[in-house]
Amino acid sequence: MATKKRVISLDVFRGLTVAAMIFVNTLPISPYTPYLLKHSEWIGLTFVDLVFPFFLFIVGVSMAYSFKNRANQSSKQLWGHFIYRVVALFCIGLFLNWIGGGLPLRIPGVLQLIALASLFAAPLARSKIKYIIITVALLLIIQSAILLFVGAPGVITGNFQPEGNIAGLVDVQVFGVQHIYNQNVDPGLDPEGILTVITATALVLIGLIFGKTLQIRGGNWGIIKLFLTAGVALILLGVLITPWVPVIKQLWTASFVMVTAGIATIILSVLYSYLDLLDKKSILRIAVPLGLNALILYVLSAVVNTLTQKIYLNSATGDPISIYQMLYQPLMDLLTPNIGAITYATIVIVFWGIIAYYMHKKSIYIKL
Questions:
Q1: Beta strand ranges found along 214-351 (DSSP E)
Q2: Cα–Cα–Cα angle for 327, 39, 17, nearest 5°?
Q3: Which residue ranges in the chain fall short of pLDDT 70?
Q4: Please, where are the H alpha helices in 27-74?
Q5: Are the beta carbons of 166 and 146 closer than 8 angstroms?
Q6: For residue 240, what are the contacts with CB-CB under 8 A and spacing of at least 6?
Q7: Threshold 0.85, pTM exceeds
Q8: Can you tell me the distance from the alpha carbon of 332 to that of 352, in angstroms, rounded to the nearest whole number?
Q9: Taking the CB of residue 272, how many other CB atoms lie within 10 A of it?
Q10: Per-residue DSSP letters for 303-341?
């Protein structure tokens, strides 16, 4: 019986993205931190803003392969496992929020958004690509229309500022202001809130289109050309609508989703060309172990990072200092704040990379 060949580029892209997520979560932020290594304050796009959308895109690509590999399962088995995965992801996300912020518990979050976007994208996993494309367009239009044309008391239609934003009002009405991330703007706002689920689902579906197209048409240079063209088209369309719908990560606007999905499409196309079509033995393959245990390593790194920030010890002067600061401060003092912070985050990635490599060597793969 032939062994199914893994798409190495997908594992590499997932591993690199998880490494970037760990880097972003670990990096000590200071006034010296380069702009590209911090989230945009509002309108704009930085390297850090790309990381989460890339992961959602990868979720969509992986969904195409997951549903194909489970083609022989009954609907009850298939959807039972999928719903279990969604619930488990959501609950793990709540757990991370709890250890990070305590009570009252923030309800939205990174894993929660992945869970919900996956849930709403999954019914289309076996649909024709043209129907998925139509759904993506509708989702982007719907969210944009809400942001542009829906108002409420205290909310001005077409307001794309943090204050008086319809997305924030929806989050407060659904969750309550005490259960969202940003309570310092009126009425409140969560970067993984209700309206973001709409466009995050569209992003997962764009990844699904990539995966299904690759399955149907096979990996060849013609399909790579198509993907590269589609990626450029998405970026241009996203830029084209920015005068009306700006690129805002905290709102996951249609322009933000199209630009980031276009970049992700181009990157995965290049990786696929190099690692799968040409079968190059690149150093990039060191990211594969991280990609094979992406979820558990992300969760463990988040837990450890949070605990190092929550646990305080006495410094040499007798003042309390967090373990987190004890680890990064010597590097910042030695190498300058900017280089020291980046060095610390890089060391953390290497640490988790070694854990990932050990798990891979022992064939330990923890998945939902």
A1: 312-314, 320-322
A2: 75
A3: 1-4
A4: 47-69
A5: yes
A6: none
A7: yes
A8: 21
A9: 23
A10: HHHHHHHH-EEE-TTS-EEEHHHHHHHHHHHHH-HHHHH
